[in-house]
Amino acid sequence: MDTIELILLAIVIASNNLSFSFGLGALNTKTYHLRIVFIFTIVEFTIPLVGLFIGQLVSSFIETYSDIAGGLILVAFGVYTIISAFRTKKERQESLEFITSIKGLFLIALGLSLDNLLVGFSLGLGGIHPLKLAIFIAFFSGLFSFIGLKTGKYVKDIFGKYVQIFAGAVLIALAFINFLGLPF
């Protein structure tokens, strides 16, 4: 996977933070914006490294099937992302109550970063440079969290659903690009 694919993947992964930050921004959480961006960025940097490490360990055992396994994980996560876009407003509202504490923000960031663990794991199967991936993901996650927080009050609830659906579709497309060996 080259740099352009890594940047696209980081943008897709960061879109979870964007859609969630729209909701946080809509709740008038201005005093917490710096804390939210900082915690989301740190967690988004760390989790893919853990996934990559696990993926690299496992790849030595299943080297023959690593491209297929990594692609299948990306497809599975893409489908999960699309399905999760259809959660109810009440479920989304309940999760937003955690923003007032550092512990709550870490729990939210870890929940949003489960995809990073899976993506890091799948890419670790293919030998991706860990710091390069983590830096791209952290950068776009921090940027998108900031943008989402600052513009959240102006964005309608339905828009977040479309962002997640688009993100899932791009993950599935990246998996097929890897399967076909296209030079992106």
Explain what this protein looks like in three dimensions.
It comes from Psychroflexus salinarum. The chain crosses the membrane at residues 6-27, 34-58, 64-83, 104-125, 131-150, 162-182. This is Manganese efflux pump MntP family protein. Keywords: Cell membrane, Membrane, Transmembrane, Transmembrane helix. InterPro entries: Mntp/YtaF (IPR003810). By secondary structure, the protein is mainly alpha-helical. The chain has one domain (3-180). The protein is 79% helix and 0% strand.
Name the descriptors:
184 residues, mainly alpha, 79% helix, 0% strand, transmembrane, Mntp/YtaF, cell membrane
**End-to-end distance, in Å?**
8 Å
* Count of distinct strands: 0
- Indicate the percent of residues in helices: over 70%
Biggest sheet statistics: none
Q: What integer is the average pLDDT?
A: 74
Structural domain count: 1
- Number of helical stretches of at least 4 residues: 8
Based on secondary structure, the structural category is: mainly alpha
What is the string of SSEs from the N terminus onward? Answer: HHHHHHHH
